């Protein structure tokens, strides 16, 4: 028997201990029904909603109990629409049983600071019609650390290219004529480096092109222009690459590829 849920999303007097514990979890949690409507939230979800109220001081109704979370995602417009559509498709797949779980990292900046969150979606065991738990975890500090690591990795790659050029120069000088490699040739050499075939076997030709661009640090908008795709298509390909290679961020993707290349 399900515990009674009040209209504000609080657990009723008969709620069990396991559900009350959710209020102590350092994450924003909501339960969606089979239609995508929010049927319950934890304290973290409600606190986040209260701290991100509208300019007139009212609470955002689109993430309160009773709101259709899937509808909000599908109707999103502007810069966040691509992420919102990926979230819609991911949650819908879990509700429909086509996926066991779904995860997605996304930015959620406030006026005074930059923030990143990790969303995880998983079906509630033995629920029918199927209900899913949506969890949002603040990963801002981890994201910053990964970004710093990614920048250092790129600096290291550039330094290795310089060292390689120096080694070729010394070798050429000892042999006689030196023909320096152009910057374009060095960049081309770095861009054509690819991980082991076993790593790429699961990727399509287009996904490999997207992977190469992501590792080079290209933004989705530039990748879309280079490959004559829509930004939404690039975002979808990126999500598929993450899923196939079992990574959750570009930083993890770069580390995976770098490790394979230098084995």
UniProtKB/TrEMBL annotation:
GO terms for molecular function: DNA binding. It comes from the Bacteria. Gene3D superfamilies: PAS domain, Winged helix-like DNA-binding domain superfamily/Winged helix DNA-binding domain. Residues 142-169 form a coiled coil. PROSITE patterns: HTH_LUXR_1 (PS00622), HTH_LUXR_2 (PS50043). Keywords: Coiled coil, DNA-binding, Transcription, Transcription regulation. One of its GO terms (biological process) is regulation of DNA-templated transcription. InterPro entries: PAS-like_dom_sf (IPR035965), Sig_transdc_resp-reg_C-effctor (IPR016032), Tscrpt_reg_LuxR_C (IPR000792), WH-like_DNA-bd_sf (IPR036388). The keyword Aminoacyl-tRNA synthetase does not apply. Residues 196-261 form the HTH luxR-type domain. The keyword Transcription regulation applies. SUPFAM superfamilies: C-terminal effector domain of the bipartite response regulators, PYP-like sensor domain (PAS domain). PANTHER family: DNA-BINDING TRANSCRIPTIONAL ACTIVATOR DEVR_DOSR. This is Helix-turn-helix transcriptional regulator.
